Inverse folding.
């Protein structure tokens, strides 16, 4: 009898009609940032197509958290089915709460906004990204030598990453960190800093990069200085450029983030909050239950010479 | 000077027929026709705002006429822009400055048409050589054509303007108040050049407010009034008063002013030293008009600027009614009741893009303040009262100053200072480019001030006005005080002697001060 | 007729017209979402911070200068105040005063080096922008949160449906609109912008006045930054990035010119309102990705062209033209 | 003596002195790492792209204008060329010509709208900056790579120890230094910048000339962008971001003024070299994190102050002074 009951539910579920005007909105910052477009947004839009619901991506074109907040606030009146928000900075907490209070299912991805009322978070711990890079680097350089690292200074997630890296390195007294640099997510800047670093520190052995543009920039400068292989590079993200640089042996280790999963499942969570396939009580709302996971760590993955062939670039 | 005309027996070089030009609110030119003969010097007279410059701007392609035609050597031409005018052989010395500070003298002279090889590469050697010749021709052999223009004195810069026009060796040369800011000597050079040009058949249109000049060099004169053509006369058959009557529509009462010099010394300067002047000491009495004569670049303006606290780089004691004062900023001077009407109104006197009324109250916004707040109605009232008083020609007090003619602009600068009714007023070239009528009015205003007890220091390069207005004249030469002349020994040649340094009353400080940067 | 034409000379009028048209059209397209009190109050809230800075920028540009360091000052003042409250437990009012104090100091340094020493304002304020951004990173690093409630209320309270920043904006705009129009002190900036030499010869203490204008914009930026921290309940070292250009754009849209001598305070607010409405409309239209930048750019150009066309109907346009071309 | 003082009026000289001093001191402090051929050639390589743009910016600023859209044009031209080669398999030379072609078009639009229609250059080029950045994202959103080798060699070949971009930079600087110094055509920009009205009155076609200058900078930026793609072996939609301000700063350091009429092409290169050396030296000095921005700012100010002090020694300083303060 119980079994029969379950099946019936399943059939109903399958036959829930989708409303094509049901709109799910993703709000990020630097909305045109290639890494976001190619991973987060691509997966989100793909999900929307599969589900037959409307997906919209909004956000300012610069890294401008205040503006991202204004985007969140300004879409709330239009009562979207759900909001998928890039957790760029703790400062967006108020805006998130505003959405939650307006009764809009709200999921945060990439970095958690702990002090907010968000219904769910999916992402990776940036601290871990730092640790992974650190461990890979330590192994490659045999625990000694000069290294430097760069990213966008002042961003909460980056700083967490830097911390992770430093925490690994501090166990290796023979490793000297020559400096922390701000490449402003700009290839030319990253390249300039790197080649200056190479001139300034002839026996530099490694560089760690933390934003999507660090890798290509560092790689370019290392190539141009003829130091390929002599200077080990670990960095984040898996753009075509990154993969190519790994294939060419310029970058040794990439730490990938499974960003597609952030938004695919993030969107799915929102959908499930709306359509309540699984109710956990007579009235979840009254019971104060959200019927989706509270926090999901999608985990990280590593790309290096050993597995690069499995990642074929779109180009 | 009728000679060239007969030589080219009356063949018409240029005809302007029924030219009309309308600006918003103003009919600048109303059906003006003009004939220009080969080899003549044709003077153009008219009050400020009569339309002289506008007519010339039409002729040289800077304005397009609303009606009328330009007929050059018999066939109708249209002059869409300055370049075409140049090609047609029309050269012009503008009333306003058309030079660039950051370029060399030579490049200013040959703006846009430097000598080049066939790939458009400038031949600087040739450029500087040509410029040198031209400068020499204009009596400026001492000036290196490589000098940056801004290092030249305002007067010399004006000569460069003239050189620029001549460099295109034009068939028709327009001179729009060329002598307004140059010295007598430079003017003489210019007149010689004009003469020799006419011999070669060049026709010259000469605009000036200085009657003496016109009678000196012109063959014929045409008169404009409020944009309307008043007729053309042969110089030999007309008198100054006739011209003025045609210009102004009435006779000018030519009065000579009585002095209002009091006893008490208002201002006393002792051993003033600065980059452009040396050991200047003088006294100024209540109600006195103290003339400051000198060649352009003599350092008069610098002295005035020093007293007024504009340029801090000078030393010397200044006493105002017996108590010593230190002036570090024009505001200090104004608080002490000293005013300064600067020499180059467009650069230093006016806010061209602002309205007439805003300009008039610039020195003293407080006149329009009621219980701590500005009242715009009051600004207009004050302004209008001065527009009346000085007879400033403007559609209304809200007109932008940039659209007014030179003379009216000058009156506005003067109004700024009357507003302050200062104890001491320094006026630097107060009648630059001002028509005879307005001049007379300005003289009257200045005298009226002295009557009320204001003392005036008057810098002027126009000796006649200096002689007629001053109670006493100081002559500067190259930064040195060379003479102090009481009214009884006023005479042009005396002053010229002291001004050019051939004579010196106080030989005590005859050591020359190094010429300022201007020289090299 | 003549009057109406003359009115079109005033950017405040022309821009108001443009904005009105924009509002009407949007209300027709999105009758339920656009012309709502909520929407407008949010639009105003989100442009309030920039408008407060724009007021200072307008005064600076009237005097013929500008300041690129405002964005950094916003971040630094907010961060510094936060730092004092969070790490040193300084009393809220004291911390705020300190935050505005340092902003004034920054403004003074800018003003002194530009007006007295004679450094080109672009270089000076650009350099300052870097320096202060660095200091902002120093004080607020990855960000500071958890302020005393008494601080958060400043920017998070709602009065008559509008959140406090909106009220602060309105007060500041009204105040300075009044001062600039009605006091001799602020009037002098028009003369300085109109012709600096003539202004000096008319007895205006140009250098001092310039220093004051830099102090004014810095302190407004500082206040804006503190207000932002309070509104967000957090201080970010990245806030205010790129604000300088957005503000200058708004102010020029509002009638200022890089040459100086022109502009009204009200114009500054209209400029930011126009920009704010555009981005609001684009959100409602769900314009996304690169289209956002493309369309924003096109609208900007369009807005200015409309303004020029309106002016052109009056004879003196060609000259206005030339002037603009020089700006 | 008098002569040497006169020389100090020329920013090219004063900046060269500053750079020389910087190099000497650094060579003393870091004898083995700083004064090496590798270091210099890398410094030059990293400033080559910006310098090519700076040449165009210098000419534009001599004429009294500027262009904020260059950074976007760099990204777009590079992306567009890459797009043609990669997706349509267009022949390398054709693709390059096309890339420069669109840049010329962009420049024409900027120039036309600024010079003829009379849009304020700041607004116009800022708007264009957004539009073109959007287009850049459109063509090379994901980033394009794997170009034909014949394209990559353009920017990746080494000749006499210098990589090709350095040579392109030197050629372009030399070429335009010559043209601007020696041809009537380019000299005209000094008249336009020095006194636009006077230029018109002297029969110079101001509007046409302005349009040409915008076309020139855009095509230089386009070329720079293509060169960058070739050097990177990839086209990235984010490249050139923030370049406009860095270039303008370098050009002003090199002697240009926002008022126009001043500057030499060589100055533009000296400006970028100075900036490049500073960041190089800072990394040698182990300056890192936010200290980089702070110290860079301080050095910028210092450099200008030195320049002013050098000039001050000459009599006419006060006049110059006044000018600067206005810039
Ligand atoms: N660009 C302009 N816009 C509007 N009005 C103008 C313009 N240029 C000149 N005017 C007006 O046209 C009239 C003639 O001016 P114009 O400069 O030709 O007089 P002028 O005879 O040269 O006077 P002056 O002897 O003072 O030079 C004046 O009323 C002036 O206000
Ligand atoms: N506003 C100014 N700023 C700086 N230098 C000036 C200024 N005005 C004049 N000079 C320079 O000062 C020097 C003395 O010229 P100045 O004008 O004082 O003599 P002047 O006798 O008044 O001649 P002018 O008849 O031209 O007024 C000249 O080299 C001139 O270039
Ligand atoms: Mg005239
Ligand atoms: Mg003088």
């Amino acid at each position: 009898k119980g079994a029969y009951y379950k099946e019936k539910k399943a059939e109903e579920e399958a036959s829930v009609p989708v409303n094509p005007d049901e709109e799910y909105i993703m709000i990020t910052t630097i909305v045109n940032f290639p890494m976001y477009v190619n991973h987060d947004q691509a997966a989100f839009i793909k999900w929307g197509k599969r589900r037959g619901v409307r997906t919209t991506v909004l956000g300012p074109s610069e890294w401008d958290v205040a503006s991202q907040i204004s985007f969140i606030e300004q879409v709330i009146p239009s009562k979207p089915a759900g909001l998928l928000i890039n957790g760029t900075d703790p400062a967006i907490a108020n805006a998130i709460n505003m959405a939650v209070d307006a009764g809009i299912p709200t999921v945060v991805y990439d970095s958690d906004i702990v002090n907010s009322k968000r219904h769910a978070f999916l992402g990776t711990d940036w601290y871990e990204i730092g640790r992974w890079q650190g461990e890979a680097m330590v192994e490659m350089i045999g625990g000694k030598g000069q290294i430097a690292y760069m990213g966008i200074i002042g961003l909460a997630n980056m700083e967490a990453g830097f911390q992770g890296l430093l925490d690994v390195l501090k166990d290796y007294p023979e490793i000297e960190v020559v400096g922390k640099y701000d490449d402003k997510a700009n290839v030319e800047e990253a390249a300039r800093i790197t080649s200056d670093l190479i001139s300034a520190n002839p026996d530099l052995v490694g560089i760690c990069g933390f934003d999507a543009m660090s890798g290509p920039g560092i790689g370019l400068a290392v190539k141009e200085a003829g130091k390929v292989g002599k200077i080990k590079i670990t960095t984040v993200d898996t753009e075509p450029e990154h993969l190519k640089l790994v294939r060419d042996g310029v970058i040794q280790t990439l730490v990938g983030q499974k960003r597609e999963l952030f938004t695919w499942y993030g969107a799915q969570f929102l959908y499930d909050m709306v359509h309540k396939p699984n109710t956990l009580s007579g009235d979840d709302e009254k019971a104060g239950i959200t019927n989706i996971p509270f926090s999901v760590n999608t985990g990280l993955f590593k790309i290096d010479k050993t597995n690069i062939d499995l990642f074929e670039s779109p180009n | 000077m009728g000679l060239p005309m007969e030589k080219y027996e009356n063949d018409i070089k240029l005809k302007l027929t029924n030219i009309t030009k309308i600006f918003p609110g103003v009919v600048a030119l109303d059906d003006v026709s003009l004939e220009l003969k080969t080899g003549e010097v044709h003077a153009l007279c008219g009050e400020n705002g009569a339309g002289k410059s506008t007519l010339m701007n039409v002729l040289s392609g800077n304005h397009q006429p609303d009606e009328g035609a330009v007929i050059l050597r018999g066939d109708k031409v249209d002059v869409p822009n300055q370049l075409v005018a140049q090609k047609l052989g029309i050269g012009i010395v503008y009333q306003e400055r058309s030079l660039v500070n950051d370029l060399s003298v030579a490049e200013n002279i040959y703006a846009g048409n430097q000598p080049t090889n066939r790939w458009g590469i400038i031949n600087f050697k040739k450029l500087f050589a040509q410029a040198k010749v031209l400068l020499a021709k204009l009596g400026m052999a001492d000036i290196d054509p490589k000098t940056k223009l801004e290092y030249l004195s305002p007067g010399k810069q004006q000569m460069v303007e003239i050189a620029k026009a001549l460099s295109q060796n034009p068939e028709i040369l327009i001179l729009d108040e060329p002598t307004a800011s140059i010295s007598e000597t430079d003017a003489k050079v210019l007149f010689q050049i004009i003469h020799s040009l006419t011999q070669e058949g060049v026709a010259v249109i000469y605009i000036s407010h200085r009657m003496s000049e016109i009678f000196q060099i012109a063959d014929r004169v045409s008169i404009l009034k409020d944009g309307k053509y008043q007729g053309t006369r042969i110089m030999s058959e007309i008198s100054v008063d006739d011209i003025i009557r045609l210009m102004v529509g009435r006779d000018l009462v030519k009065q000579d002013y009585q002095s209002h010099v009091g006893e008490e010394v208002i201002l006393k300067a002792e051993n003033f030293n600065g980059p452009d002047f040396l050991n200047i000491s003088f006294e100024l009495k209540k109600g006195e008009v103290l003339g400051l004569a000198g060649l352009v670049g003599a350092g008069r303006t610098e002295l005035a600027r020093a007293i007024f606290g504009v340029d801090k780089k000078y030393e010397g004691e200044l006493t105002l009614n017996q108590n010593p004062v230190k002036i570090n900023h024009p505001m200090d001077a104004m608080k002490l009741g000293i005013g300064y009407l600067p020499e180059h109104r467009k650069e230093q006197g006016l806010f061209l893009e602002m309205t007439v009324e805003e300009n008039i109250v610039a020195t003293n916004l407080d006149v329009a303040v009621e219980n701590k707040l500005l009242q715009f109605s009051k600004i207009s009232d004050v302004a209008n009262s001065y527009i009346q008083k000085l007879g400033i020609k403007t559609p209304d007090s809200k007109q932008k100053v940039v659209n007014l003619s030179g003379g009216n602009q000058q009156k506005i600068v003067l109004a700024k200072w009357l507003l302050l009714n200062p104890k001491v007023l320094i006026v630097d070239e107060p009648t630059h480019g001002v028509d005879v009528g307005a001049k007379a009015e300005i003289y009257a205003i200045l005298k009226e001030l002295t009557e009320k007890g204001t003392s005036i220091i008057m810098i002027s390069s126009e000796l006649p006005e200096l002689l007629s207005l001053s109670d006493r004249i100081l002559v500067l030469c190259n930064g040195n005080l060379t003479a102090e002349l009481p009214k009884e020994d006023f005479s042009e040649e005396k002053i010229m002697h002291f001004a050019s340094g051939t004579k010196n009353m106080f030989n005590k400080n005859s050591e020359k001060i190094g010429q300022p940067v201007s020289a090299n | 007729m003549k009057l109406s034409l003359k009115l079109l000379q005033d950017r405040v009028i022309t821009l108001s017209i443009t904005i009105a048209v924009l509002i009407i059209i949007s209300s027709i397209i999105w009758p339920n979402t656009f012309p709502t009190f909520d929407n407008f109050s949010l639009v105003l809230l989100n442009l309030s911070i920039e408008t407060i800075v724009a007021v200072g920028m307008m005064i600076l540009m009237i005097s013929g200068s500008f300041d690129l360091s405002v964005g950094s000052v916003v971040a630094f003042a907010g961060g510094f105040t936060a730092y004092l409250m969070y790490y040193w437990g300084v009393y809220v009012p004291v911390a705020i005063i300190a935050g505005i104090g340092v902003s004034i100091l920054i403004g003074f340094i800018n003003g002194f080096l530009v007006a007295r020493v004679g450094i080109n304002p672009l270089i000076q304020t650009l350099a300052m922008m870097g320096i202060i951004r660095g200091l902002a990173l120093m004080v607020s690093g990855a960000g500071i949160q958890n302020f005393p409630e008494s601080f958060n209320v400043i920017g998070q309270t709602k009065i008559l449906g509008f959140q406090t920043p909106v009220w602060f904006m309105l007060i500041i705009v009204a105040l300075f609109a009044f001062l600039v129009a009605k006091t001799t002190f602020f009037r002098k900036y028009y003369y300085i912008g109109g012709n600096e030499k003539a202004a000096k010869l008319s007895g205006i203490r140009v250098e001092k006045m310039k220093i004051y204008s830099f102090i004014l914009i810095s302190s407004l930026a500082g206040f804006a930054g503190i207000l932002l921290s309070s509104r967000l309940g957090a201080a970010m070292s990245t806030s205010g990035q790129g604000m300088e250009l957005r503000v200058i754009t708004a102010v020029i849209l509002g009638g200022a010119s890089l040459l100086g001598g022109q502009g009204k305070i009200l114009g500054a607010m209209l400029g930011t309102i126009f920009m704010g409405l555009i981005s609001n409309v684009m959100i409602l239209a769900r314009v996304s990705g690169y289209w956002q930048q493309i369309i924003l750019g096109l609208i900007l150009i369009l807005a200015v062209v409309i303004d020029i066309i309106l002016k052109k109907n009056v004879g003196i346009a060609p000259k206005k033209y030339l002037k603009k071309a020089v700006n």
